[in-house]
Amino acid sequence: MAVEKVYRCDLCGAFTERGELKRLGVRGLDDRPEDADNVDVGPCCGTKPIVDVIAHGRELRRVAVDG
């Protein structure tokens, strides 16, 4: 039996293969690149505006910092 790994798009929740995801680092101007919050975007959301990705990254940061 083979185990197939699937991953989830952070914006819409659709499942896809790892090779189809794009990992985007969302950060503020004062953050270092290694402090970026990573957002995985699938092909289903590849045409969405980048502001949606930035808003999701901000929410990740808020949860991580404020709890």
SSE map:
Layout (H helix, E strand, L loop, with lengths): L6 E2 L6 E2 L5 E5 L10 E5 L8 H17 L1
Antiparallel strand pairs: 1-2, 3-4
Task: Write up what this structure looks like.
- It is a single chain.
- The chain contains 1 helix and 4 strands, in the order E-E-E-E-H.
- The strands form 2 sheets. It has a two-stranded antiparallel sheet with strand order 1-2.
- It has one helix at 50-66, and strands at residues 7-8, 15-16, 22-26, 37-41.
- Helices cover 25% and strands 21% of the residues.
- The mean pLDDT is 84.
Jot down its keywords.
globular; 21% strand; 1 helix; 67 residues; alpha+beta
How would you summarize this macromolecular structure in one to three sentences?
With 67 residues, this protein is α+β, with helices and mostly antiparallel strands.
Rounded mean pLDDT is: 84
Task: Give me the side-by-side strand order of the main sheet.
Answer: 1-2
Unreliable stretches, pLDDT < 50, 5 or more residues?
none
State the separation between the terminal residues, measured CA to CA. 40 Å
The total count of helices amounts to 1
